[in-house]
Amino acid sequence: MRHLSVLTLIFLFCPLALFAQDNYLVDWDEVGEESINHLIKLVRINTSNPPGNETEVTHYLKNVLAAEGIPSNLYALDPDRANLVTRYKGNGSKRPILVMGHTDVVGVQAEKWLEEPFGGLRKDGWIYGRGSLDDKDNVTAGLMLMLLLNRYEVELDRDIIFLAEAGEEGTPEVGINYMIEHHWEKIDAEFCLAEGGGNIL
Predict the structure, then answer these.
(1) What's the rounded Cα separation, in Å, for the pair 186 and 110?
(2) One MF term in GO for this entry (predicted)?
């Protein structure tokens, strides 16, 4: 699968690219390589649902964020199936935007794969592996968005919240349902950018 969703990159990085064009020198080739490296590492973490094991992904994300001084928190109904939330602070004049991606993947029939499903193989401009398109590409894009906003200290009118969600593949009780019922204040936002769309709540 292609290494990052084109639409995801357009929606998440285009405003920053326009901002950076006037204010910073951003090496977008370097950003692309960094993104690909994170995606490969995430694909190599087997989060097949069931059982999930999403906490391993959230620990990876938390460590990457912490290395750049970005705080994040884990919220879990099941300790092996954590959700991660981090927030980039704007001036608060507008309500937040929630950017989310899910860290679990559907199971695999390994014998039907030509490549190792959790190998994260990079070949001919493609990344092969379960989750490379659904949905660890979006998780990677959300991670990179938070890193870049923080690195360049971008001034925004609203907070940006990143949620790495567990349990999207059929077990929402440990993921989005749990977050809504028990930690709504952490993800409450005016808009949500995710892999799906078309529904107004």
Answers:
(1) 38
(2) hydrolase activity
Domain-located, residue 199: no
Q: For 32-50, what is the mean pLDDT?
A: 98
Residues of the chain by 3-state class (helix, strand, coil), percent to 5? 40, 15, 45
Q: Flag whether 198 is in a domain.
A: no
The closest of 96, 61, 103, 101 to 185, measured between CA atoms, is 96
Reading phi first (left if > 0) and then psi (alpha if -120 to 50, else beta), residue 185 is in: alpha
94 against 195, higher pLDDT: 94
**Is 181 contained in some domain?**
yes
> Which residues form the domain of 12?
6-193
> Which pLDDT score, from 0 to 100, does residue 109 have?
96
In the chain, how many domains are there?
Answer: 1
> Distance between CA 10 and CA 8 in Å, rounded?
5
3-class DSSP assignment, residue 93: coil
